[in-house]
From TrEMBL:
Stored SMART domains: EFG_C (SM00838), EFG_IV (SM00889)
Signal sequence segment: none
Function: Abolishes the inhibitory effect of tetracyclin on protein synthesis by a non-covalent modification of the ribosomes.
Key words of the record: Antibiotic resistance, GTP-binding, Nucleotide-binding, Protein biosynthesis
Protein name: Ribosomal protection tetracycline resistance protein
Organism from which the protein derives: Paenibacillus macquariensis
Pfam families the record matches: EF-G_D2, EFG_C, EFG_III, EFG_IV, GTP_EFTU
Length: 659
């Protein structure tokens, strides 16, 4: 079985909560690095890219390791800015525990909530660390109330802050307080009542006035935190090195060691790919079962290919160390996997958790290179960057010589521009980003295609297309017997359906539908497997033409806080942007309003809000799904390639391409 002396921990937070500073202090206190780096000075250990050092923000998830109290801890420091949420999404999947950092000054922000819900969807045990306790205006009761209201009422303070704001001097362990002091939210009775909520026997003893031994309470609390029922809350100021050691103690005590079996068949996942100047393409792998060794030939289940491992390394402090082997539960940098991609499963899917979907690009943008002679260089560079961040989803339209990317926001475009210049010496410009719409069937309908001419070919398909609720995605099934349509032909149809739905009647991806293959026919002499590559898009588009499609627009969940005197103007703006929102609340002279609004109408509003309020108004937002556009909104996108509805032209085009 996996060693109990290991932890895999992700560090997550909203931007500017002090995440990288906290990680830096952990590295220093553990003795992994000899001198403290600084985010402001561009010397932080986990900020490896030039742009990260220049801008003082994390762009990529950074993996490192420390040893604390004889426990080996793999730490993954993730970006805090919403534009790089894809890095967070990939990291969460491979963690056994998490630290969620909340700024005591700013409180729980939109990114904090998004990450929290993703952690809960995977039941990952989590420690909440309230950082920046020394900031002016910090109120411990306000922070506690907000955390319990917006995150979880099962949050339990492990420490009592000694002062707050400028008067913050340190922390006192909750275990040093009294059990019978019922007048404070920060004493031992808080721990007892929280544990007792999950333990009827202990609750009865507590009600009857029995003294609960500290050691017993600690053991029960530890069990409940490792199982994700209770969430320890720590306080500190990482910049002043207050609370960091106690946070590291909490990691070793309250977060679980990885599960898994070294003797079981190999099971792992690639969650990060980067380029090393000396070593080349590096795949970061988390093993759930089994082991990897140099020169092993491993099976990539996702792509059904085999690749040979050439080297295995691990980052310890500022340098890589050659391992030669890595065992279940651990994380390592693996070399030789030239064809494998992020998200690929190695060996077996047993024990590999699903991935939360929190990073949804809502904008698309076209990229241009300043020097047209370097167009092919730009193609290669963008392919390499998409390999490292699949969410970019590079669309290369070779005939039109167009390059399109999916992005999260303006900051990501700035970072991409800087990366292309610093890494590839390419100067680029971007068109104005446009919103990514989607389509969905308006009603149920059938699609039919009999592809029997010009010979030789034979593929007959009938599809039933049904709309599904928002967020359902694509559901595909076949009701056709293998006697009527061979399984290998049915598999070809199943592979082609998602491709056929990438462009609907209005040119956007079609989603939230069920496609059922109800009829299929092949010919014993005339049918070739490629016939179904040609026929499937025509059958699907015929069904969409019969069902018609409804345009869907992306929505944001937002929270705006602004001085009270700007409240009326903000509410008026929200109405103009077609927002739906709750009645606003007023707290300490500031108005706060929450709701949902379309991305298309609010792209520039954060800038407008800051300008209008002199920088005192703040808007935070996160993805909230898609909904049907109002009837007066019409946004068509030019179709790429020949429309399968023009069957004669489409058949000629595809047959020429396939030949």
């Amino acid at each position: 079985m996996v060693s109990q002396s290991m932890r895999n921990v992700g560090v997550f937070a909203h931007v500017d909560a002090g995440k990288t500073t906290t990680t830096e202090h952990m590295l220093f206190k553990s003795g992994t690095i000899r001198s403290l780096g600084s985010v402001d000075d561009g010397t932080a250990q986990t900020d490896n890219l030039d742009i990260e050092r220049q801008r003082g923000i994390s762009v990529r998830a950074a993996t490192t390791s420390i040893i604390w109290r004889d426990i080996y801890i793999n730490l993954v420091d993730t970006p805090g800015h919403v534009d790089f949420l894809s890095e967070v999404e990939r990291s969460i999947r491979v963690m056994d525990g998490a630290i969620l950092i909340v700024s005591a000054a700013e409180g729980v922000q939109s990114q904090t909530e998004t990450i929290w819900h993703a952690l809960r969807s995977l039941s990952i045990p989590t420690i909440i660390y309230v950082n920046k306790m020394d900031r002016v205006g910090v109120s411990v009761p306000d922070v506690l109330e907000q955390i319990r209201r917006l995150l979880s009422p099962s949050t339990v303070p492990l420490q009592v802050p000694q002062g707050a704001g400028e008067d913050f001097t340190g922390i006192l362990p909750i275990w040093n307080t009294l059990q019978d002091d019922q007048n404070s939210e920060l004493d031992l009775s808080t721990v007892i009542t929280s544990v007792a909520d999950h333990d009827d026997e202990l609750m009865l003893r507590y009600i009857e006035g029995e003294h609960i031994p500290i050691e017993e309470l600690q053991n029960r609390f530890q069990s409940l935190t490792k199982s994700g029922h209770l969430f320890p809350l720590c306080f500190g100021s990482s910049q002043r090195d207050i609370g960091v050691a106690e946070l590291m103690d909490a990691i070793t005590t309250y977060l679980p060691s990885p599960m898994g079996d070294v003797e079981a068949p190999l099971s792992g996942i690639i969650f990060k790919i980067e380029r090393d100047k000396a070593m080349g393409r590096t795949a970061y792998v988390r093993l759930f079962n089994g082991y990897l060794r140099n020169r092993d030939l491993i099976h990539n289940v996702t792509r059904d290919i085999h690749e040979k491992i050439t080297q295995i390394r691990k980052l310890e402090g500022r340098k890589f160390v050659d391992l030669g082997q890595v065992f279940s539960g651990d994380i390592a940098a693996v070399y030789g996997l030239s064809q494998s991609k992020i998200g690929d499963v190695l060996g077996s899917t047993v024990g590999v958790p699903s991935s939360p979907e929190i990073a949804i690009p809502l904008l698309t943008v076209q990229v241009h290179v300043q020097d047209e002679h370097r167009y092919s260089d730009l193609v290669e560079a963008l392919q390499e960057l998409t390999d490292e961040d699949p969410q970019l989803d590079l669309q290369w339209l070779q005939d039109e010589r167009e390059l399109h990317l999916k992005v999260m926001g303006a900051i990501q475009l700035e970072i991409l521009s800087s990366l292309l210049m610093s890494r590839f010496a390419l100067e680029v410009t971007f068109d104005q980003p446009s919103v990514i719409y989607k389509e969905t069937p308006t009603k149920s309908a059938e699609g039919f295609i009999a592809y029997t001419m010009p010979k030789p070919c034979w593929a007959v398909l009938r599809f039933q297309i049904d709309p599904l609720p928002r967020g359902s995605g694509l559901v595909y099934q076949s009701e056709v017997r293998s006697d009527d349509l061979l399984i290998r032909y049915q598999n070809e149809v199943a592979r082609r359906v998602p491709e056929a739905l990438l462009q609907g009647l209005h040119g956007w991806e079609v989603t939230d539908l069920k496609v059922t293959l109800t009829e299929g026919e092949h010919h014993v002499w005339h049918t070739h497997p490629l016939d179904f590559v040609v026929a499937t898009p025509m059958g699907i588009m015929d069904g969409l033409a019969n069902s018609e499609t409804t345009l869907l627009e992306p929505l944001l969940k937002f929270r705006i806080t602004t001085p009270e005197e700007y409240g009326g103007k903000v509410l008026s703006d929200l109405v103009q942007m077609r927002a739906e929102f709750e009645p606003p609340s007023i707290i300490h002279g500031r108005i706060m309003v929450e709701g949902i609004l379309p991305v298309a109408t609010s792209l520039e509003y954060p800038i407008k809000l800051r300008s209008m309020t002199g920088g005192r108004g703040v808007m935070s937002s996160s993805y909230a799904g898609y909904q049907a556009c109002p009837p007066d909104v019409h946004v068509d996108r030019p179709r790429r390639g020949v429309d399968p509805l023009d069957q004669s032209k489409y058949i000629l085009s595809v047959r020429n391409a396939l030949s």
